Amino acid sequence: MIIGIDVSSIMYGTGVGNYTLNLVANLLKIDKTNQYKLFFSSLRLPLPLEIKKFSAYPNVKIYTFKLPPLALDFLWNRLHILPIEFFIGKCDIFHTSDWTQPPTLKAKTLTTIHDLVPFLYPHWSHPKNIATHNRKMKWAIKQCSKFICVSQSTQKDLQQVFPQINPQQITVIYEAAEKKYADFLKLSTAVQNQKKNKIKNLYDLDKYVLVQGTREPRKNLLNLSLAFEKFIKLHPKSKIVLAITGKSGWGQEVESKSGHIKILGYIPEKDIVALHASAILLATPSFYEGFGLPLVKSLCVGVPVLVSQNTSLSEIAGNAAILVNPNSTDSIYLALEKILTNSHLYQKLSHNAIIQSKKFSWLTTAKQTLNIYKIIYNDLI
User: Fold this and answer.
1) How far apart are CA 149 and CA 168, in angstroms?
2) Does domain 179-357 have CATH number 3.30.1330.10?
3) What is the pTM of this model?
4) Could you tell me which residues come within 8 angstroms of residue 35 by beta carbon, excluding any fewer than 6 positions away?
5) Which of 7, 45, 236, 293 is deepest in the core (most CB within 10 A)?
């Protein structure tokens, strides 16, 4: 079987890129039989080192092109010309990106649905992004043999927005956190503390509630910050801060009246594991998430989580979370009060977090995805 995968998203370092990178890396660990053709295209950016490393596998060939995303959107989503085989040669299966849907000569296609934000909440998306996703999905519905959804919540959303898709075509396959998160707890207590202290000193932190992700309206940072300020007002001696990490997206930035909110911005990947492990809580009261990868990272290192009750987050967190109504500042405040002042509850949630994290593994993701490839291929022959 010859399997093609669009790996262009890896260069952006986004959630979709992280998914693609870990999926391919783990597919290559478990599959030495099938051939893999990796498609990468960028006008200005060079082939990322993470993708170059895949060329060490004898069953991998990488195809690079200097076409920008707008050109591929025009060729594949608008005109729907130039089959993927024109670029990478013969393939049996092609796993498309979340951005484009190329035509094929004979290859069967599948795509992964990470979320339905452009369709369910267009006010949180740029009009150009909405138009691109509409064009992509028009062709995906016609072409794709299978749709992979990263959560049951996303599957439900997909069926709501596109009821014409046969439910038998949809499979839920969870994402995961890299092995290095679970491995952190295997270190000696002394080494763990050393790494935690290094991170706290580097970012001038002591006790903190962590927020990770692109800063944009759907992350609900405004309500979270108001709830946290209320907590600090009622606990004036508390030294806990709200540490907000991630790239700046768009929308109103939060402000701190008490000085207990820190905007740390982008954090290098080398610091992320210890940053999660050093936090006393991860807060993700988002209005909408397709999966919630930072959540799984915190679960792996035994950190309890505060999440919204009406998204995929409650599905992923299980009984390791305090659930909140994202529209209610009081609900978020009461959850903070409950988890930050009740040591018995905190220890219970921390214990549950480690148990819940074992449900997610990139190797499992790869095995289940490879099985989907085989199902499509068997139907092909």
Assistant:
1) 12
2) no
3) 0.93
4) 1, 2, 3, 59, 60, 61
5) 7
